[in-house]
Structure formats: C-alpha cells, structure tokens
Amino acid sequence: MSTTHTTKVAFIGTGIMGSAICGHILDAGYDLTVYNRTKEKAEGLIARGAHWADSPAAAAKGADVVFTMVGYPTDVEDVYLASDGILRAAKKGAYLIDLTTSSPELARDIHDASEVVDVHAFDCPVTGGQTGAEAGTLTLIMGATEATVAPVLPVLQTFGKKFFYFDQPGAGQTAKLCNQVSLASCIVGYADALALAELGHLDAEQVLELIMSGTGRSGAAESYAPKSIAGDYKPGFMAEHLRKDIALAVSAAQDAELALPGAETAFTLFDTLCQIGGKRMGGQALTLLYAEEGDAVAAGLDWSLLDAGCGCGEGCDGEGCDGEGGCGCGGHGHGEDHECCGGHGDGEGHCCCHEEA
Ligand code: NAP
How far is the CA of 214 from the centre of ligand 1 (A)? Predict the structure, then answer.
C-alpha cells in the first residue's frame, strides 16, 4: 500500500479494538508499524500493508505517533516504563498516546516520565465499543489540552468522531472510569429487568422495546441487551475488562473514602461471572448469572468454580485462590500491582480477592 502521509504511526496492541482502529489508520494512508504480543492477531493488518516490529521498542523507534491499546495497567506499565519500553525507544518530540482503559495514577506517572525524555505522552481512553472502533466513530477522552493534542488530531480523526479534553494527565482515565461505572450499572439494570420479565412470562424483546421507548433506556441496553436475549455472548467488550474498570473506579473512590454502591454491586456480579468461566465472554453474558444452571453450563459457565480459586489460571496465589480460579489479576500475585483492584496493593480493600472491600 502506498502511503500518503509523512507522519509515521506505530500501534501496540492489535486486539479487538486495536485491529479495527489500525484499519482506519491504514485506510487514511498512514505508514503504520504494528506490534502485538500474539503476532497472529496482527496478520490481517500486515496483509493490508502494515509493517511488523518484533517488540514495542522496535515499533516505537522512528515513529512520530505511537498508540498503545493493551489490556491492563500492568501491560501499559510494561510497554512504557520497562527498561526496553517505548519511553526510552521513542524519538524526541514523538507523541505516545495510550488508548487503553487504565489507571489514572499510572497515566500521570507516564506523563511525568515523558517530560524527562522529551516526548509527549497522554492518556486517551475511548468509548464506543467494537462497533464504534469498526465504524471509526469512537469518542476520545483525553487527559490533555486541545493545544497539546492539535498536532496529532488528523490521525485521531481517522477513528474518532467526538473529542473530550479533560486537560490534565490522568484525567482522561478518570473520566473514562466515570463512564464505566455508569455503563456497569446500566448492564445490571437491564439484566434485572430481563430477569423480572421472564418471571412474569413476558416477551423479552417486547419488554426491551418498552424500556428503550422510555426513561429506562440506556446505551448499554441498546447495544448489549439484544445480544443477551439472543444468547450471543461473544465479546465485543470482555467481562474481564469491565471488571478491571470497575475495580479501578472502586479503588480510587475507596482511597478517598467515597462509597460507590452501584459500582460495588456491579463489581461483585462481574467478578462472579469472571470466576465461573465468563471472563472472555462479552459483558452481556451477565444475564447468565440469572439463568437456570443448565443454561449457564450450556453457555460455558461452571458455578462450581465460584470462590474455588483465582480463575486467572496464571498462578494467582492469594488467600482463597488456588492458582486456577479467578481474580483476574493476570497472574502476578497479590503484591503491589494488583491491577484488578487498580493496583492498590495487598490486603486492605482487596475486593477482587474477596477480602474486605
Ligand atoms: P483485547 O482484544 O484483549 O486487546 C488487547 C491486545 O493487547 C491483545 O491483542 C493483547 O495481546 C495485546 N497486549 C497485551 N499486553 C501486551 C503487551 N505487553 N505488548 C503487546 N501487546 C499486548 O482487548 P480490547 O477489547 O481490544 O481492549 C483493549 C483495551 O481497551 C482494554 O483496556 C479495554 O478495557 C479497553 N476498551 C475496550 C473496549 C471494547 O469494547 N472492546 C472499548 C473501550 C475500551 P494478546 O493477543 O497476546 O492477548
């Protein structure tokens, strides 16, 4: 593919969202280099003309704009701050833009470190889901001023349609977490409604149509409830990522002694879904918690896993975890970087491990 821009773009993390976003960057004629932990997920982009790099640093080297859209705060930390991370590899004056939903505190740390090495780094989580990524209509939530973002606006406009400037490093992530706690409660809200509809022997689609015609409607019900009703639990937006987002929000609130009862309830429910085998299902699979056990099993869940262990299957060794069950910590143990709780450390407030929240 011939490129029509002199701006060189790198993109790290070509998963559900990243691959769709990269498609728009390529379509707009940018020279694009990609890296993903699992190379297969980048093959389609390479076939369309993207260059492959063997590491985040190799991708970042020489790029004018580097996007990251990985899974968890620990992934972001590795990609940016490791000794072979992109902060050290990026050329002076480059823009490093994190699209991951991650920790506000980490975003501030990365911003501060970027000033030392003379690059521009800002948080820019997105909303709009897989559909918005594919359509190129995402909403971008920036922890930067309009003036800071202006030089890179053309490339952002290839996949974003609405732009919110929250001016301060980390503020984009905080605003995104506000969106996520609202989203999580909306999913719980429509899941409750559909369970009540079933109890009353009502037609679920008719009840959803009613809800969508009035004040009970939500974007979550619009996007996800039809999939719940149809039994389509493919992600979209993985339950484990929503659990991570709610945990980050609840953790930040707890640090300031603010209660978020809606988010705490949603966390318990999404954590349960993740523990019993649903972490890589779409968030709409929450309705399976209300279903007959046989239906949940048919969909791939296993209630016997609840509280049986960690569920991450990656060596989580905390209390109540046997290494194969479910806190979603990504297997790094119960130390200071406990990302499922927003990295607030061991013990106190360790909601994902069922310690006192
Ligand atoms: P995803 O499909 O899991 O994509 C994340 C990608 O990042 C994966 O392909 C993963 O590699 C890669 N990755 C993780 N750590 C890496 C590392 N250290 N180096 C290189 N690549 C790495 O998830 P997603 O749905 O695209 O979501 C990505 C982020 O956006 C999450 O923070 C999520 O909360 C947020 N988000 C998602 C949506 C949505 O609707 N899906 C909407 C808004 C925001 P592997 O292929 O090896 O796993």
Answer: 34
Structural domain spans, the chain: 8-168, 173-305
Cα(262)–Cα(78) distance, integer angstroms: 32
pLDDT, one tens digit for every residue, the chain (357 residues): 456 679 999 999 999 999 999 999 999 999 999 999 999 999 999 999 999 999 999 999 999 999 999 999 999 999 999 999 999 999 999 999 999 999 999 999 999 999 999 999 999 999 999 999 999 999 999 999 999 999 999 999 999 999 999 999 999 999 999 999 999 999 999 999 999 999 999 999 999 999 999 999 999 999 999 999 999 999 999 999 999 999 999 999 999 999 999 999 999 999 999 999 999 999 999 999 999 999 999 999 999 999 876 544 333 433 333 333 334 333 323 233 444 444 433 333 333 333 332
Q: 28-57 burial by CB neighbour count: b if 16+ within 10 A, else e? A: bebbbbbbbbeeebbeebeeeebeebeebb
Separation of CA 342 and ligand 1 centre (Å): 17
How many whole angstroms separate alpha carbon 77 and alpha carbon 59?
A: 16
Residue 244 known to be catalytic? no
Instruction: Name the 3-class secondary structure at 355.
Output: coil
Query: What is the 100 CA–ligand 1 centroid distance (Å)?
Result: 7
Q: Whose CA is nearest to atom 19 of ligand 1?
A: 37
Sign of CA dihedral 40, 45, 46, 50: negative
Pocket of ligand 1 (CB under 6 A): 12-18, 35-38, 41, 56, 69-71, 75, 78-79, 100-101, 126-127, 129-130, 236-238, 241
Fold of 173-305: N-(1-d-carboxylethyl)-l-norvaline Dehydrogenase; domain 2 (1.10.1040)
Interatomic CA distance for residues 271 and 47, integer angstroms: 38
Which pTM was predicted?
Answer: 0.89
Ligand 1 atom with minimal separation from the 78 CA: 18
- Nearest residue by C-alpha to atom 30 in ligand 1: 100
Class of domain 8-168: alpha beta
